[in-house]
Amino acid sequence: MKKIILSLLSILFISQFSYAQNNIFKMNNDADMMVLDGDYYAAIEKYKTILEINPSYVNSIKGLAEAYFYLGEHDEAYNQIKTALTFDKNNIELMSLQAHILLALGNISEAEKIVNYINSKDPNNVNAYFGFAEIALLTGKYSQAAGNYLNILSIAPANKKALLSLILILGYQGKHQEAEKYLSDALRLYADDYFTLYIAARHYLESGDLIHAEKRVKESLNIKPDYFDSALLYVKLLLLNKKYDEIYPLMQPFYKEKNNSIVPYSLGIASEKNKDYNNAIKYYAEAFKIDPDDEISRYSLENVIRQHRDFTDPIRRRYAEYHFERGKGLDDRNYTSKALESYRRGLLIDPYSVIGRIQYANIYLKNGFRAKYLSELRTLPSKEKQKQNISDHIEIYESMTENNVSSQWKIDQFLIDKNYHTFDIYYIESLDMLHPAGEEIITSILSNIFHHSEIIKINKNSKIAGYAEAFSTSRNAENRSDYFIILKINEAKRIFSITASIYSTYTGTLIKEYKINTTGNNRIWENLNRLSGQIINDSGKEGKIIKINFDRGIINLGKLDGIKENDSFFIVKKDKITPDRSKIGNTYSLSEIIGEFHVTRIDENISEGLIKSRDIFNLVNYGDFVFPITQSIHLEDKNEEITNEYGLFNIILDIKKR
Hints:
Elements: H1 2-36, H2 40-53, H3 58-70, H4 74-87, H5 92-104, H6 108-121, H7 126-138, H8 142-155, H9 160-172, H10 176-189, H11 194-206, H12 210-223, H13 228-240, H14 247-255, H15 262-273, H16 277-290, H17 295-308, H18 314-332, H19 336-349, H20 354-366, H21 370-378, H22 382-385, H23 388-400, H24 405-408, E1 421-427, H25 438-451, E2 456-463, H26 467-475, E3 483-491, E4 495-504, E5 510-519, H27 523-538, E6 543-549, E7 552-555, E8 568-572, E9 578-579, E10 586-587, E11 593-602, E12 607-613, E13 625-628, H28 647-653
Parallel strand pairs: 1-2, 1-3
Antiparallel strand pairs: 3-4, 4-5, 6-7, 6-13, 7-12, 8-11, 8-13, 9-10, 11-12
């Protein structure tokens, strides 16, 4: 009897265990489907429920890692996959996911070790080829990446991730006809898949076929109306077709959620294009209220205010305050250059701000530039300058600067013209932007930043299809610029990338290419200021003689330009100068040097010096150029930094393997 009872209990335990395992298996399958459908929060909840029952259930730990990965929580995804590997350290699938996550974290070397190991164990393992392809993508080796996806398709011809990735890469390379073959296969195999239809719409939009792009994006939304990427692609298409009114009903279902800043931003740009500036301001403000880190929405609002509101409108003060507060915080932490950048942006929005102007001036005073401080105080409205504390400061610093170079030569040193180089800025529209038409905003902000430079002047900025259009437009312009810049911009959720290529307008020769990636808060602002700073630093330091008195003269370079006493310059006749075709700056023949200028006294924006002519007759005249003797005629072509390519990589990384 005892044996019978024990047997019955054993059978009952086994059946309950079997039921529990089957139930876990079913729950895990349900969670896996949630991940495939993009319902990551529900999937995470279900995986965690399973792990409460069985903490060592590897498939659920792996599922958690995938769900966190697609949410963009790569650190947490990495923690989960490391946990999974403690239970099954030789699992190739887990190792493949680990490499996938490491690449998203930017750890290429560790990911490559894992992928090589997988490939050595199983030369036909598609996960290894996926890893090789993603490494190639991240390092900008697109043809190599395409080759790896072709290897996958030779093993698994219907592999959706490989097909769609190959379509994206070929499209990015401009090989649209070649991409069509693989697109046909994808549409034949996955005709009812919303994501495949989204990739098809993206392909057609990129290749300029707007009719087929609209057809496919509508099909994608019919299958999955809440798929935001398709809706966002449709917004971009509607903006191109100038169908601004259709953006409102498209975005309304998403607008109700109030959790995605791109939605009110899209409504804001539709309103702005319709010249409904009040609603544009309202929607843009909603966007960065949802996400205070949404820089493009903030800049869009600021641009509308600058262009369509009076200088005395209180709204200017309200939105300039953000930049003044940030500037003060940076100044308190001794980030002087960053503080100046923020104050300049604030003063661009509200140029009559007394507090902003004084705080901006104080930075110069703190750094020893008394004349610049005084110059900023003098720009205050008359009413403010009459106040006791301001008038006292003006009087004090007028007295302190009365013996400087500018006072003795009777020159207002902050009203003189600097030598400058002229630029056109062009941008190529990209599908790798979270914000539709965001490239236009970014280009305008870069242009604004250059506005504060005295040596770079922007003639125009506009959209172009490619290099040929940019070269032709700039070269044939009535007011021809010296150089033109082509911007390629990528914006992901956590990283902002820009490639800026500078060309000579005269020959179309590439002078230099800058690639900058930034992450964290204010990444767009940091990126654009870093880019502008590098371009300014790479511009030749040159000036001209603005006043002569016998053997002494004044040049338009001073302490603010990094000039020091005893610096020496070559003097070249002004009509013998030509824009350089190989660097930013002017060039001249050594035979055209007519003298030297030796700095004896410096002021903040000008310098006094001794003029020595190379000829028995003094040929030096007002307006002749000066070039530092120590400055090489040709700048070295150095790489500012090595960066990885994230635009296309991020899109392909998020394609699910199914």
